[in-house]
Amino acid sequence: MGGVTSSIAAKLAFCPPSPSSYRLVSDEVTGLLLMNPFPHRENVEILKLPTRKGTEIVAMYVRHPMANSTLLYSHGNAADLGQMYELFIELSIHLKVNLMGYDYSGYGQSTGKPSENHTYADIEAAYKCLEESYGAKQEDVILYGQSVGSGPTLDLAARLPQLRAVVLHSPILSGLRVMYPVKKTYWFDIYKNIDKITLVNCPVLVIHGTSDEVVDCSHGKQLWELSKEKYEPLWLEGGSHCDLEHYPEYIKHLKKFITTVERSLSSRARASTSQSENQGGHVEMPRQSVDRREKPRESVDRREKEKPPKGPSKKSKLRLTFEQHLDRSRRSVDIHDKARKSVDQHHQIERGRKSVDRLDRVRSEQTRKSYI
């Protein structure tokens, strides 16, 4: 039952236009890849991108000279790049963004067969190209998913924590929920957006028509309710599944959203720069383990600072005491030596006096005898 339901859901989800609305040709002069029947534009590049599933998908990159963001657009079912070409050009102009659109495996001139897992590999290949070939960063990218395209969009968004924003255009809760009002997620369901939306950490804009007969508006409303960072949604009164781009409110609201998220990022960047300048122009990433080791060093420094600047240390006191002891000893020895010298000198003088007195007595005795 599960396999049959999953197969039915897949068949309903993937209906690539047949035949494809475009052909790929190579320019004879420049060798550039072109999308026939559309004329070559200087700001549009047509690419072939390999995927990790072994397929090769076709992508188009529209460059805007004043862009601050890049829109990675995953289109809906029953469409390919040829049908989206003019809309992508207009979105790039009106929103002032770079834009990359791509065909899923099995769509347009992309090789392989369409499947859920293939679309995940397809959007990864497109995002990898933005990073490696065009220098885009996570915080520069806005993921845009229309209808079935909300599946690969939310799958990638849940794995990019620094992403700038997400736009969900007529999104689905899951493939099975489009057909049946089930309350729980089954293992055989496809595009389990209801479970992945809670993992997205950036602003989310939901656009849905209130008269959508393919994907009920309740899908968009529930995904918006489950979003962590909600942006004012756009519920287009009377809008169906494939005509929302024709409403004036659509482009106006989308432009406001992109301007808001760009300003928000700029404000964070300015705050970070200001903090950097206040810290002397040097921003250091927190190193908890190092900081933890350095804290005792700060406390030691603090104790050293709290000590009086003058006065001998304990070692100095001991050294002084020992030197004073030696000095006293030297003084006592010197005094003893002086005393001994003075005594010896006195003895010598006394001895000399005694010898002189003895000699005087002998002489006087001899003189006296001679007179006698």
TrEMBL record:
Region listing for Disordered, in residue ranges: 268-372
Q: Which SUPFAM superfamilies match?
A: alpha/beta-Hydrolases
Q: Where is the signal peptide?
A: none
**Which stretches are tagged as biased composition: Basic and acidic residues?**
289-309, 320-372
Q: Which domain of life is it from?
A: Eukaryota
Give one Pfam family. Hydrolase_4
| Start and end residues of each Serine aminopeptidase S33 domain | 70-175
InterPro entries registered for this protein in UniProt: AB_hydrolase_fold (IPR029058), Hydrolase_4 (IPR022742)
Q: Which PANTHER family does the UniProt entry name for this protein? A: ALPHA/BETA HYDROLASE DOMAIN-CONTAINING PROTEIN, PROTEIN ABHD13
Protein name per the record: Serine aminopeptidase S33 domain-containing protein
